[in-house]
Amino acid sequence: MRLTKDFYLKYPSTQLAKSLLGKLLVHDSPDGRTSGIIVETESYLDSEPAAHSYVGITDRTRTIYEGHPGTSYVYFIYGMYSCFNVVSNHEGSGDAVLIRALEPIEGIKLMSERRLKYSKSKKDRIISIDRLCSGPGKLCVAMDITKEYNGIKLYSSESKLWIEDIKDGKEYLDEEIVTTTRVGITKAAELPLRFYIKGNKYISKS
DNA sequence: CGGGAGATGGGCT
DNA sequence: GCCCATCTCCCGA
């Protein structure tokens, strides 16, 4: 079942980040379908300086502030990579959840091909399945999530990108989730806003 | 396996 | 001009 508009509204950002663990992210692309279980997330709040939205509404952050929760926020980083977020909290807030890692499920061959094609190396390096989507940039390459997906409604039945519940509403308990600090930031680095499934081998790093 | 450097371009001051 | 919610390659152990 595709997650509904109400699901994204139900929790504040940090709780949504935990509730998204175990859900399936799906992309129906012209090349074929790819999907993966969300195993690692981070919450970003408009009240803390690590968030893009901390500076207020700009061309880039407009999606986060003006999108209803459940809208996709995709940004371009380090000149080469996209990162995928889910707008969260209530409409008008600048909170979002970064999706950091997936356990690949459908279209694994297609994901590998996209990753290999993206790499400049002449040598065909073998990409092991547990590293196919083990990072926010990697999963966007593997799933082919590009800036064209910025601002789309993940809860709309029309969208080609969405998140589904595959566990009949069952969610991970706090003791099954590791809560720690976020990766790759310098500001507000001490806040415990990164979440991953304990013992999971598909996360970006331990 | 771990560390360090380089790639590469948009956003913001 | 500097920063950046990253990744890959290549080196040494």
Looking at this protein, list some descriptive labels.
8-stranded antiparallel sheet, alpha+beta, DNA-binding
Give me the secondary-structure topology.
Blueprint: H1 5-10, H2 13-19, E1 24-29, E2 32-44, H3 62-66, E3 72-77, E4 81-87, E5 96-106, H4 108-118, H5 136-143, E6 161-164, E7 177-180, E8 194-197
Antiparallel strand pairs: 1-2, 1-6, 2-5, 2-8, 3-4, 4-5, 7-8
Helix pairs in contact: 4-5
The chain binds a DNA duplex (13 and 13 nucleotides) through β3, β4 and α5.
Can you put this structure into words, describing what you see?
The protein has helices at 5-10, 13-19, 62-66, 108-118, 136-143, and strands at 24-29, 32-44, 72-77, 81-87, 96-106, 161-164, 177-180, 194-197. It contains 5 helices and 8 strands, in the order ααββαβββααβββ. The chain is 18% helix and 27% strand. It starts with a helix and ends in a 9-residue tail after the last strand. Strands 1, 2, 3, 4, 5, 6, 7 and 8 form an 8-stranded antiparallel sheet that branches. The structure holds a DNA duplex (13 and 13 nucleotides).
Short description:
The chain is of the alpha+beta class. The protein is built from five helices and eight strands, in the order H-H-E-E-H-E-E-E-H-H-E-E-E. The protein has helices at residues 5-10, 13-19, 62-66, 108-118, 136-143, and strands at 24-29, 32-44, 72-77, 81-87, 96-106, 161-164, 177-180, 194-197.
